[in-house]
Design goal:
ATP hydrolysis activity, Rossmann fold
Amino acid sequence: MGTRFIFFSGKGGVGKTSMACTTGVYYADSGHKTLIVTTDPASNLADVFEQDIGHKVTKINGIDNLYAMEIDPDKATAEYKERSLAPMRELFDEEMLKIAEEQLSGPCTEEMASFDKFIDFIEEDSYDVVVFDTAPTGHTIRLLELPVDWSKHIEESSKGSGQTCMGPVALIQESKKKYDDAVAKLRDPKQTEFIFVMQPEETSLAETVRSSNELKEIGITTTKIIINGLIPKEEAVNPFFKSRYDMQQTYLNKAKDTFMTIPIKTMELFDSEMKGIEMFRKSSGILFKGSDKRE
């Protein structure tokens, strides 16, 4: 099979990282070489796997086939600038290089670098599965809009001034194909799954509806929704938990009515913290119950 890309997004605090790690552990245990990449600057991927990870692909201890990386925006920017300047060093003098470096020192470059690194992984073919644990929804939507926006910007600039905020179109013309290829993969549900994680609450449901519609506007399909943190029915025995259980069931049913054409999975609230390989094996047994291990 080709590389599958699985995105997890949703409101802050809904359990995106837990569900991304649950999925990563499931595929790794199923024999698929799997990479989890986080695009969230406030990631706690290292905390939940209880080891250092950082801005490099790192083997996860205690499990075969699983790797992880936390994208550092500052390091991604430095790498992008060096990658852009390297081919110019043999062609231009110091003065021209200084001008080029100044052009690569604005906020435009920082924005470009963060999604350029992200797109590197969309081009990745050395893993069977790449799982993206993303920043809260607004950042993620922007990240996914950027390849579309930049491709248009390069095309329009090439027909007009020939200049972009990154400098001459000629220097980044090759990037247009890269962005167009990434957009094609993101829009193909056979290659890319886009999963929203939400809590069974009104605000979380409202944001999921809004974000799913925004994704649709840029041609990306929501393939699954995970409703996380459900209180088990057998635990709803005292008034406090019974009240919360009833509220959760209301929004679970509203979500099912709202997303009638999108598969919905549920995950119960555990009585311990979601961290460590064994905990993710426990949650994957619930999330993927009935799934074919060869998927």
